[in-house]
Amino acid sequence: MGSAVRRWRVPAAPRAGRLLLLSRLFQPLNLQAGGEAEGEPSCRSQRLMLQAGLIHPSSPGCFHYLPPAVRAMEKLVKVVDEEMREVSGQKLSMPSLSPAELWRASGRWERMGTELFRLRDRHGKSYCLGPTHEEVVTELVAAQSNLSHKQLPLRLYQVSRKFRDEPKPRFGLLRGREFYMKDMYTFDASEEAARRTYDEVCGAYCRLLGRLGLPFVKVQAAAGNIGGSMSHEFQLPADIGEDRLVLCPEGHFAANVETLNGEQTSCPTCGEKLTQRRGIEVGHTFYLGTKYSSVSNAVFYSPENKPQLAEMGCYGLGITRILAASIEVLSTEDSIRWPSLIAPYQLCFIPPKRGSREEEEEGAALLERVYDDVAEVLPHLAGDSVLDDRTQLTIGKRLKDANKLGYPFVVIAGKRVCEDPPVFEVWNQNSGAGVHPHVHEAVPGRD
Ligand code: ATP
Ligand code: MG
Ligand code: MG
Ligand code: MG
């Protein structure tokens, strides 16, 4: 390479507007953060997310989601959108300010008690900040006076902030007072059709959690104050989970504890001893029947042109809870591990330390070339990379941070970059596998 080597310089602007410089990223690392706010116990995901500059506490149960966290969340929402499209979901957005009349009509203005954030407008009219949207969406559909059976099934969903005055907000994003939920509401012409919808949406949830590589169980659940006759939860087994699960070792049976009769200890199907575990509820599905459509008179017109109440289902998925729960179950005590699909950045480039003259020149120039190469061959990956330009720090120190932050891939221009041919280290942090001589052999999407 010799004299042809270009001098290393940190690009004045991100290369091609895509390579992000770590020194410019608003991601305040706070490696001492313990996550113990006001004497509350913390958990692994809360601690790691605070340390890694992903979240910043604002008030109990309310957090700033910092840029890398928003990036992860947007990726998660993209995957959720894909799965919702698979089941013909149509995305909309409903107001967060929800008029009290709707909640009074369903009886939940009273029943939700102190969990509802209530407020009034300047005219004295009462509202709540939506904790969920059954009433609101049913009223929307009821307002369509000519809904035909031909338009069913209708499957509407949104991704929005939800507000619940949780008595004990804790564990960071796992239990917030303001959090993101994906909520789908479905309208069908018959009970049979609604049950088909129910199975399809449950299938979408299983696929989604599978694609994220999360170990989950689907369990029978109590319907709580949302109501309805059939309900399942999607749970990630974890010691800090707030729900108790009862599981059959053969997978025949899985419930929440409260749905069990008395002290049932063996599986009703195979008689195997039931085991108990704790779990984090990440999703919840309900078959609602006409519980809400009968309140708002949400009807459709049958083939005989008769108005009939729509059969409904509702399907919640905790977006911010899934972010935190993924970190909770996949990470080690010290290092974040993401589902690859939602890692904020796929790749971190680590150029040589400033002042290590020979490597600096050779390594940096080569790394630029590697980057250009990646950009050409795998544009999606290059646009999903950061460059750790904190070159005043040793490679070791920056690698330690990269390990904590959990980029799926790290490309390092270390000492061996001056060899002929130059050797880069490429780490696959999820598998822990290391040292590949060429970036092409290790980056995802390459044969
Ligand atoms: P939990 O039992 O944990 O209080 P929930 O049963 O009250 O949850 P649902 O009404 O079923 O919650 O809402 C659907 C999904 O929204 C939940 O499965 C969960 O993933 C998410 N969720 C609910 N409450 C919170 C919260 N306080 N913070 C973050 N996510 C939440
Ligand atoms: Mg709750
Ligand atoms: Mg629950
Ligand atoms: Mg629930």
TrEMBL record:
One GO-annotated biological process of the protein: prolyl-tRNA aminoacylation
GO CC annotation: mitochondrial matrix
Entry keyword Nucleotide-binding: yes
Chief location of this protein within or outside the cell: mitochondrion
Subcellular compartments: Mitochondrion matrix
UniProt domain Aminoacyl-transfer RNA synthetases class-II family profile: residue ranges: 74-339
InterPro entries for the chain: aa-tRNA-synt_IIb, aa-tRNA-synth_II, aa-tRNA-synth_II/BPL/LPL, Anticodon-bd, Anticodon-bd_dom_sf, Pro-tRNA-ligase_IIa, Pro-tRNA_synthetase, ProRS_core_prok
Catalysed reaction, written as an equation: tRNA(Pro) + L-proline + ATP = L-prolyl-tRNA(Pro) + AMP + diphosphate
Domain of life: Eukaryota
Molecular function terms, GO-annotated: ATP binding; proline-tRNA ligase activity
Signal sequence region: 1-37
UniProt keyword terms in alphabetical order: Aminoacyl-tRNA synthetase, ATP-binding, Ligase, Mitochondrion, Nucleotide-binding, Protein biosynthesis, Signal, Transit peptide
Name of the top EC class for this enzyme: ligase
EC number: 6.1.1.15
UniProt function note: Mitochondrial aminoacyl-tRNA synthetase that catalyzes the specific attachment of the proline amino acid (aa) to the homologous transfer RNA (tRNA), further participating in protein synthesis. The reaction occurs in a two steps: proline is first activated by ATP to form Pro-AMP and then transferred to the acceptor end of tRNA(Pro).
Family assignment from sequence similarity: Belongs to the class-II aminoacyl-tRNA synthetase family.
Protein name as annotated: Probable proline--tRNA ligase, mitochondrial
Organism of origin: Strigops habroptila
